[in-house]
From TrEMBL:
Keywords: ATP-binding, Nucleotide-binding, Transport
Protein name, per record: ATP-binding cassette domain-containing protein
PROSITE patterns: ABC_TRANSPORTER_2
Keyword Transport (UniProt): yes
Top-rank lineage group of the source organism: Bacteria
Pfam families: ABC_tran
Molecular function terms, GO-annotated: ATP binding; ATP hydrolysis activity
Coiled-coil stretches noted in the UniProt entry, renumbered to this chain: none
CDD domains: ABC_DR_subfamily_A
Organism: Actinomadura litoris
Residues annotated as domain ABC transporter: 5-230
InterPro entries, per database record: AAA+_ATPase, ABC_transporter-like_ATP-bd, ABC_Transporter_VariousFunc, P-loop_NTPase
Length: 294
């Protein structure tokens, strides 16, 4: 497998607090990767190390075969759209494209102009007068037109309305298909990730809890519902991800490579959102089952 990002024991510490630790990852090329987890889990810290804005406190990281931000050639390989899709309010759309051309040696001016025209953005309009969706599309244009091999998007659509989010994601997938870009997309919006992502990384409490192709993860995880039982009584091959109990019933989300034969269990499929919530939930809680909370 060719990995666009590979880490071993990667960590970042602020004072005595680890923002990310013991991170072992191999993100495959040619994928749209969803990076998810609660606020403060370490997602933005990881992305900032991928693009070279932060140096590791521990471990190693390799991006597209090199050290992040190690020189102009390495910088040219990675596009980055940070949180809040930053643009310069006083600059026009055309000014942004000229700035992109000056800063990026591989800048594709024709691609940038074509995207701006298809989006209906007025080149003479200042970014501060654009809508949130238009600013996001302008930021995405800047990221794509540098012709990166890897595009990093950190919560790019969090502040957009549903229509603007859908348009942004459609535009992103079009660019992925046309230009063979690998993408890492951080988002809290599971519906968006379900629409576009084929690989998943879940970060909780500063650690990577699970990573893999979405189809493989969904196949390997199951929801078990049945009479109340202690998790320790489950077979060793069934790794308990989360557990919740009522007085008489237990509900487990488990990961297993083999079939589940115990007739006491009702076995159900796990959707992407359920899977992510399971990894974000403490393993054992005496509370209503997950189904009752949805």
């Amino acid at each position: 497998m060719t990995a666009v990002v590979r880490t071993e024991g990667l960590g970042r510490k602020y004072g005595r607090r680890w923002a990310l630790r013991d991170c072992d990852l191999a993100i495959p090329a040619g994928r749209v990767v969803g990076l998810v987890g609660p606020n403060g889990a370490g997602k933005t810290t990881l992305l900032n190390m991928v693009v070279g804005q932060l140096a590791p406190s521990a471990g190693t990281i390799e991006v597209l075969g090199g050290r992040p931000a190690s020189g102009p050639a390495q910088l040219a390989k990675v596009g980055f759209v940070a949180q809040d899709t930053p643009t310069y309010a006083s600059l026009t759309v055309a000014d942004h494209l000229r700035l992109g051309a000056r800063l990026n040696p591989g800048w594709d001016a024709a691609l940038a102009r074509d995207r701006i025209e298809r989006l209906g953005l007025d080149p003479a309009r200042r970014a501060g007068r654009l809508s949130g969706g238009q600013r996001a599309q302008l930021a995405l244009t800047l990221g794509i037109a540098k012709r990166p091999e890897l595009l990093i998007l950190d919560e790019p659509v969090a502040a957009l309305d549903p229509l603007a989010r859908r348009e942004f994601l459609a535009s992103l997938m079009e660019a992925v298909a046309e230009h063979s870009i690998s993408v890492v997309l951080s988002s809290h919006l599971m519906s968006d990730l379900e629409r576009v992502c084929d690989h998943l990384v879940v970060v909780v409490d500063s650690r990577v809890r699970v990573a893999g192709d979405v189809d493989d993860l969904l196949t390997a995880h199951h929801r078990l519902t049945g009479p109340r039982r202690d998790a320790a009584r489950l077979p060793s091959g069934q790794h308990v991800v989360s557990a919740s109990h009522t007085d008489r019933q237990s509900t487990f989300v488990v990961r297993t490579d083999g079939p589940i034969h115990d007739p006491a269990w009702t076995v159900g499929e796990v959707g992407l959102e359920d899977l992510v919530l399971a990894y974000m939930t403490p393993k054992t809680e005496d509370r209503p089952a997950l189904e009752a909370l949805r």
